[in-house]
Amino acid sequence: MTLKQVLIQVPGIVFARGPAVAVLILLESDDGETFAVLTEQVRVLTGKVVLELPAGMLDDDEGDFVGTAVREVEEEIGIKLKKEDMVDLTAFLHPSTGHQIFPSLGGCDEEMSVFL
Predict the structure, then answer these.
(1) Average per-residue pLDDT in the chain?
(2) Fewer CB within 10 Å: C terminus or N terminus of the chain?
(3) Predicted local distance difference test score (pLDDT) of residue 13
(4) What is the pTM of this model?
(5) Residue 37 sits in a domain of what CATH number?
(6) In this structure, is residue 56 part of a structural domain?
(7) Residue 58 — φ and ψ, nearest 5°?
(8) Which stretches make up the Nudix hydrolase domain (predicted)?
């Protein structure tokens, strides 16, 4: 038995994922260095453990982006934040973007808000 290479064009695939959030947490050391807090996540599709910003999907229909951001940070890295302390970085984007980031618009409908 031999292995034969077969080239077949497959149709593009898109998937509906929905809204999500990510949180950029910056820590400053006593000597003035700034560090970003990342979380290790196992990503089966890549076969790797990767470093990421704490992030997650909106689990409700109410669109509580800030509440989701606070919850994901506590779940993923154990830091408790207050909703009123969150800064929506995507609010500074041009209005034509809908104040959202689309990380993979070619294949997915995921829209993301990023908080500081």
Answers:
(1) 88
(2) N
(3) 77
(4) 0.79
(5) 3.90.79.10
(6) yes
(7) -70, 125
(8) 16-116
